[in-house]
Amino acid sequence: MFSERTLYIVATPIGNRDDLSARAIDVLQHVDRIYAEDTRHSLPLLRHHGIETRTWTLHEHNEESRIAMVIEHLNAGSSAALITDAGTPLISDPGFRLVRACHAAGVRVSPVPGACAVTAALSVSGLPTDRFQFVGFPPAKSNARQTWFRPLAQLPHTLVIYESPHRIIESLTDLASVFGPERPMTLARELTKRFETLLYGTVEEILEAVQADANQQRGEFVLIVGGVATLSDTDGDALPSVDLDKTLSVLLQHLPVKTVARCAAELYGVTKKTAYDRALELQRR
Ligand code: SAM
After folding, report:
1. Are 111 and 184 members of one domain?
2. Taking residues 205-209, what's their average pLDDT?
3. In which domain, by residue range, is 276 found?
4. What's the mean per-residue pLDDT of the chain?
5. Is the C-beta atom of 12 inside 6 A of ligand 1?
6. What mean pLDDT comes out for the span 47-64?
7. Residue 270 in contact with ligand 1 by CB distance below 6 A
């Protein structure tokens, strides 16, 4: 399983240090070098698992300048692993430029999968997971954040957003104003850690709960927001958002109901039958 001249992209825990897989430990023990986002942060985890491999830093600010060195080392027949402070490298973390350069240089890149806050939060969110979009961290300023949220609020599928404790209240406030207070969401805080908390409800309910309790404003957060289709149901193909109704009503004035249903299904990601039944309902009114 273990190969030389390979860069392993190794997922590390997002909180609970025992969430490092047996294969991750094996690879980290056997590679020639480990590139870590912050070596001081990762050393306690590595030592806890008996990993003595030498570490080198590779972070946002030195990634570009490290690339030539890493590739030269790998081309000489060595192996290396890339880890970050938590979870899967490249997911809102450094590594993209290095992986792209390895591909260009013909160096093998191989994943050692494991923890990731996106999938951990989705798996317990209770929101549809058949289709979702990960959008990373929102902009820091409220105006930019609202502009960034606006097109996302129209999407039919689940959204996964990262947020820091400094901006959790502001982001939830902007979510309520752009997505509407009734939009279903889940707030996943401190996953796999001592104070792990999951809050399920509408954006407004969760904003109120977080505002009311300073402890809920601490730690690391993933916000999972239901798509427009979840506004009136939670089975992932539910009826109807205000926008869907509006689109159907306008189209019905110009097109046969079957065509309307086909267009709406394509636009909103609902089934043709769902759109057709809703169009008939609107026509009857
Ligand atoms: N690469 C990581 C991953 O695979 O999830 C993400 C790194 S990103 C710099 C850090 C963000 O991930 C945090 O601000 C938070 O939004 C989310 N996160 C990481 N660990 C988490 C945890 N235990 N609980 C909730 N969110 C977490």
Report:
1. no
2. 96
3. 230-284
4. 93
5. no
6. 97
7. no
| Domain at 198, CATH number | 3.30.950.10
Residues near 147 by Cβ (< 8 Å), separated by ≥ 6? none
Q: Is 42 in the pocket of ligand 1 (CB under 6 A)?
A: no
Ligand 1 atom, smallest distance to 192 CA: 23
Tell me if 37 CB under 6 Å of ligand 1. Answer: no
1 belongs to a structural domain: no
What's the burial of 10, exposed, middle or buried (CB within 10 Å: 0-12/13-18/19+)?
A: buried
Band of pLDDT at residue 236, cut at 50, 70 and 90: very low
The structural domain count of the chain equals 3
For residue range 5-53, what is the model confidence (pLDDT) as tens digits? 999 999 999 999 999 999 999 999 999 999 999 999 999 999 999 999 9
Specify whether 102 is located in the same domain as 123: no
Summarize the confidence of residues 150-178 as an average pLDDT.
96
Which tokens sit at 221? 């957060």
From 65, 83, 115, the end of a domain falls on 115
How close is the Cα of 29 to the center of ligand 1, in Å?
Answer: 25
80 shares its domain with 14:
yes
Q: Are residues 133 and 182 in the same domain?
A: yes
Pair (255, 274) in one structural domain: yes
